[in-house]
Amino acid sequence: MKSGTSRILLVICLVLSFTGFSQEYYELSTKSKKAKKYYENGEYLLKKENIKEAKVSFLSAIEEDPEFYEAHMLMGEIYEHEENDSAAVVAYRKAIEIDQDRYPPTYFILADLEYKNGWYDSALVHFKKYLRYEGTYGKNQIKAEKYLANCEFAIEAIKNPVPFQPVNLGYNINSELNEYFPCLTADNQTLLFTRLLTNTRSVTGRQEDFFISYFINDEWEPAVDLGPPINTIVNEGAPTLSADGNILIFTACESIDGYGARRNGFGRCDLFVSKRSGNDWLMPYNLGEPVNSRHWESQPSISSDGRTIYFVSNRNNDYDIWSSTVNNNGDWSEPEILGDNINTEGYEGSVFIHPDNQTLYFSSDGHVGMGGLDIYVSRRDSLGKWGRPVNLGYPINSFKDDNSILISADGELAMFASDREEGYGGLDLYSFELYEEARPQVVTYMKGTVFDKETNKKLDARFELTSLTTGLVAIESFSNKKTGEFLVCLPANDDYALTVSKEGYLFYSENISLTGENSSTDPMLKDVPLEPIKVGAKMVLKNIFFETDKYDLKELSKIELKKLIRLLETNPGMKIEISGHTDNVGSPEYNKTLSENRAKTVNKYLVENGIDQSRLLYKGYGETNPVDTNENHEGRANNRRTEFKVVE
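Structure (tokenized):
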């Protein structure tokens, strides 16, 4: 809505002063005395801010003289004030029809109104006509050139729509209130979102809180208030949930309602963190500097490895997307602004980093699009640079503001907020199947419980998922302190060494292959038993690799051996036996020799990297201690292994 009668009165002055660009005085376009009288009365009523009666006078003037240019112009402004855009467009078009050159900025006013309503074809024509006048300059010229490009894009996008069939998430999630900013765990089982509630204690009468729902028996359970200590009497909003659902980062702002916020911040809005212990959320704490500043920080998104946070900040006097990484000591780096490929002179927000850690979705009104905020996708290249953003297309994007998109780990499901007519009221959450070209890299997950192998006690343990291609830690996570539950994302098209460790226990080793003919992106449901360190305890090192029929270590074996070195350094009194084992292919004598040489090679690597030989034994058992059948490929692969056992 326009600001009262101020713009209408401004347009009166502009119309009176503009005509012909050079006339020394202005004469109304009508020759009808009655029309002039109605018009002058309308002007008087406008100055008294009596828009309703002024409207009657101007309509009467038009009835007396249908070609009365100035009356049509002011009726256009009044209709805009009433948010009757269709009628305003008719009024402005009539004014141009009467005299196309009297007031050239009318073309911009008309085109801007058409553009904001998605009437791109006519907006395109009128922006072009506006730009042809020599008197155009400044902000309106810049806007007209930008919006003209958007009109051209939008017209083509509408001709080539992308697949889009949104489905309302239903009454268990949505209500007559506004629901928005959804978060989803990697297994698609937990949904957290923001709901705008009524709060009579607040000056604004509104309050943002978080609600949570679980997907059970193929439907979302009724959403419930997340409750304290997360939700308070002030606003909480724009959340991001870790892939396993154990870490919540959200936005909290200073209180303006007189009740006082219990959260002390660095600026107007800060990012806060809470961690889940069992089913309870711990007291949130401020993420601190340098991520938070004296400016506005909001709309966070945490990467699946837990090491990088993306967020929106106006610390450069513009709303841009920034990122910060955390080191092993828990210290966040000085935030860096994402490059010019992502940020523009316009607004960027609603950032979402997919669990593949390579695909970024965000909203912007600065890139070429449909108008307002559109949703874009950008992919990281091999050098770590973000590629040129791609508009998700029509009808996902429209002339309205489109934002708050969320993409599931498998890349197939998308969620967003919309105020569609068929909803339950206000903004509702919808889901739809994302078309293939806009999907991220496929990500699956491993899910289960960590427990003590002897007592079945649930354990909190550290997970490290290391790429066997790069040797870099791809994911770092922890199981729930009380329940032992864990969920680890597994980006496809790579092979991984998974290590699960806890002080006082042997680490757990797993090899996960998501490449080659036998790879699978199906979720892995697997419980992890950890064995207490004691004499006789043993484990298989599943990421020790040798060439076929050889005993030279492959380079990627060093990832696992470094974990073993760390275990021995942490437990200086421990002595182990390294044992090699084979399948039954070949003679028993050959297999025994091969297995002993392999155990000896591992022993040598440990000594060369600082472990005293007095703490190490090695032995080859050949084919004598199978753990699986030798009748098939999988069984034989399990029998070919390197183990270690605590002997002292």
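Residues 138-159 form the longest helix (22 residues). Residues 442-532 form a domain with the Immunoglobulin-like fold (CATH 2.60.40.1120).
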